[in-house]
Amino acid sequence: MKNRLFLVFLLFFSFSIFGDEKPKKIIAYYFHTTHRCATCLKIENSSKAAIEKYFKKEMEEGKISFVSINIEEENNRHYIQDYKLYTKSLILSIVQGEKEVKWKNLDKVWLKIRNEEEFNNYIKEEVESFLNEIK
Questions:
Q1: What is the average per-residue pLDDT within 88-96?
Q2: The whole model's pTM is what?
Q3: What is the dihedral of CA 98, 104, 107, 108, to 10 degrees?
Q4: 3-state SS, residue 52
Q5: pLDDT tens-digit profile of 19-75?
Q6: Which residues does 118 contact at the CB level (< 8 Å), separation at least 6?
Q7: CB 49 within 8 A of CB 68
Q8: Which domains does the chain have, with CATH numbers?
Q9: Residue 43: CB partners within 8 Å, gap ≥ 6?
Q10: How many helices (H) and strands (E) does the chain have?
Q11: Separation of alpha carbons 99 and 94, rounded Å
Q12: DSSP label at 93?
């Protein structure tokens, strides 16, 4: 009898821990300042366009989103420390519920922006890598 109760408790506990796990999602953040140069705008627009092109289905399903944030606004300044930002940046973040579990600064966007195919492939490969982690 004690063994049965223990098994029932164990099964209930296992389902309560593993059954309520929230799905993971990816947020692509583009961080910018108020004053923006042509290259900064191009990185933002090209990043968003590449993600929408290659991951339209995942965006529609809510697995991926793109968010542009001005780090000069008072309530956004914490991102500078959070992500160790030193310039306009594209950050990929895996979020589960309200908790960030991984992030990466795609710092090669500045090197690849002058070549559309290289830029798009870089974005696609990095996002695919993150998608593989949330499946």
A1: 97
A2: 0.83
A3: -120
A4: helix
A5: 557 899 999 999 999 999 999 999 999 999 999 999 999 999 999 999 999 999 999
A6: 112
A7: no
A8: 22-134 (3.40.30.10)
A9: 30, 88, 90, 109, 110, 113
A10: 6, 4
A11: 9
A12: E
